[in-house]
Design a protein that fits this description.
There is one protein chain. The protein is α+β, with helices and mostly antiparallel strands. It has helices at residues 24-30, 66-72, and strands spanning 3-7, 13-17, 50-53, 82-84, 98-100. The longest helix is centred in the first third of the chain and has 7 residues, at 24-30.
Length: 106
C-alpha cells in the first residue's frame, strides 16, 4: 500500500498508508489529517482540498484538468505545484508522495 506524507502548514507530518484507487484527499479525510477540508466530498466543485505537491513528484501526479484549474481560481496562494488532492488518484507509482497543505483552504 502506498505511503503518502501529508505536511501541515505548521510542519507537522502525517505518514499514511493509502489504498490504491483512493484519492489523496480521501486518504487524508479517512485518517483525520488536519488541513484538508474536502467540503464537496471529492467532486472537484470547491478548492478546500488544495495541496502543494512536492516538486520531485509533480510529473508523477499528472497535470491539472480544466475543471481543476477553474476550481484553483478560488484557492489562496496557488503555486506552480498546486493541485486539488481529490484529483490525484493513489497508485503504487505514488508510494512516497509528499504533499503540503496551505495555511488556509479556499
Amino acid at each position: 500500500m502506498p505511503k503518502i506524507t501529508y505536511i501541515e502548514h505548521n510542519g507537522t507530518e502525517h505518514e499514511i498508508d493509502v489504498p490504491n484507487g483512493l484519492s489523496v484527499m480521501e486518504g487524508a479525510v479517512r485518517n483525520l489529517v488536519p488541513g484538508i477540508d474536502a467540503d464537496c466530498g471529492g467532486a472537484c466543485a470547491c478548492a478546500t482540498c488544495h495541496v502543494y505537491v512536492d516538486p520531485a513528484w509533480a510529473d508523477k501526479t499528472g497535470s491539472r484538468e480544466p475543471m481543476e484549474e477553474s476550481m484553483l481560481d478560488f484557492a489562496e496562494d496557488v503555486q506552480e505545484t498546486s493541485r486539488l488532492s481529490c484529483q490525484i488518484t493513489v497508485s503504487d507509482a505514488l508510494d512516497g508522495l509528499i504533499v503540503r497543505m496551505p495555511e488556509h483552504q479556499g
